Amino acid sequence: MKKFFYLFLTIIIAVFSCVSFTGCKKSEIDKISKNLTTYAISVELNDDMMISGAETIDYVNDTGADLEFLCLHLYPRAFRKDASIKPYTALNMATCFPNGVSYGDLEVKSVSVDGEKKEFLYAGEDEDILKIIFGFVLKNEHRAKIEIGFDLTIPNSTHRFGYFENNINLGNFYPVVCNFENGEFDLTPYYSTGDPFCSKIANYEVNFVYSKLFKLFSTGEISTEEKDGKFCSTISAKAVRDFAMCLTSKSAEKEEMVGQTKVVYAGYETDENISACLEVAKDSLSYFNSAFGKYPYSTLTVVKTPFLFGGMEYPGIVFIADSIKDETEFKKVIVHEIAHQWWYSVVGNNETKEAWLDESLAEYSTALFFGDNEKYGVSYDEMVQSALDSYLLYVDVISTIRGDVNTKMNLAVFEYKNDYEYSYMVYVKGVIMFDSLKDAVGKQKILAGLKKYYKDNKFKIATKSDFYKAFESACHKDLENFFEGYLNGTAIISKIS
Ligand SMILES: [Zn+2]
């Protein structure tokens, strides 16, 4: 995700040419998608902003353990009236609900396992987890067919899950299996800070019925037909970490190919910058393909939509906030969110516990992109200097007011006192950290480290150990102390870096 930061100024630095890549995408995805869990989701949007849904999960127990029950996140339940952990704060309520507070929900109607009806319960710290007790032991590497009937209420909101003006954002809307780590399911609730998600790659086959007033953009490949006066879209997405959609009623879009990937930019009918936004999306994809390794999917969609933060990444689709009026800032958010296709999407990480691992990389990748694409008039050096200046100012102000200041990058998202602290430590300090490493080892080794991290961790959930391993191998030196100094807040950061 990209918070609103208007921190960075613009100038020009280096030159690079963007290279389009072609390659054998299908075979890689086809190979990876075999033996993954598959979600078959059937949803219909009603006129009153309700969705009735059915989800059949061909679940593959790849936890390494024998299971007696399964846990799934029900993120829309965080929008219900009596939720105690909410995905928004008092400070951003007005942006989140421009028309006044509105509630959403996900109500589970039925559950069956291998054709047999099962009891289920709402579990977790805030009853936002669906716990299904099998009544038998699902052995490791065995499969079960889980069927869930549910109703969704979409809030009138600019959040990841919400409708506002002409758009409906459908992020984190369906029951999704909790990640299993250290012998248990990760039941992390929907915190307001950061993107508190972590999921394994899976296959998705989605059927969506909706009013002909809308156009649909989503993860994966869409085919749409008209049926009984409505649109009926079938969407297929293989080996993706999550699945999201956005419905728009007054959008205008353009698309072009970059190698074997169709890149789509969907703005608003009245926009005059559709081609320019498509261009930055295409350039980002080309640049990151070349710098980090090839994007493996056949589509990439950038959709402008009402959104309370700057932007949000999902596999194959990113949301960009329509409230960003500054053209350069809008482009920076497009680049940042597209960088997440490498850091978060293809290479996953636990975004609750190690948010820096994808956010720092996405933010630093943005600086690399602009540094090497001089036509955008944004300077790498100025982005880094701006990060350094604003970081030092933040540290100075907060330590003066509070007497001390947290400078740790490695806290879990819910451990940061507020969004500002989170953003400065995870985004801004991340840029400073990587630039400092660049000073020490050179840009080519940074790029080699990122390539290696991508190659070695594609489609997996990486940790900082995997990250250290890739960089140490690329730089031929022990970097643990360097990174740990930044992460645990002991590295000295000063004007003279
Ligand atoms: Zn981000």
Outline of this structure?
With 497 residues, this protein is α+β, with helices and mostly antiparallel strands. Helix content is 29%, strand content 30%.
* Structure class: alpha+beta
What shape does the CA trace take? globular
List the strand order in the largest sheet.
5-4-8-2-1-14-17-16
Could you give the count of β-strands? 25
Describe this structure in words.
Strand 1 and strand 2 form a beta hairpin. About 5% of the residues have low confidence. This protein starts with about 25 loop residues before the first helix and ends in a 10-residue tail after the last helix. The protein is globular and about 65 Å long. The strands form six sheets. Strands 5-4-8-2-1-14-17-16 form an eight-stranded mixed sheet. A five-stranded mixed sheet has the order 19-20-21-23-22, with helices on one face. A four-stranded antiparallel sheet has the order 6-7-3-11, with no helix packed on it. Among the domains are: about 160 residues, Sandwich (Immunoglobulin-like); about 110 residues, Neutral Protease, domain 2 (Orthogonal Bundle), CATH 1.10.390.10. The protein is of the alpha+beta class and about 500 residues long. The chain contains ten helices and 25 strands. Helix 3 packs parallel to helix 4, helix 5 packs across helix 7 and helix 8 packs across helix 9. It binds zinc ion.
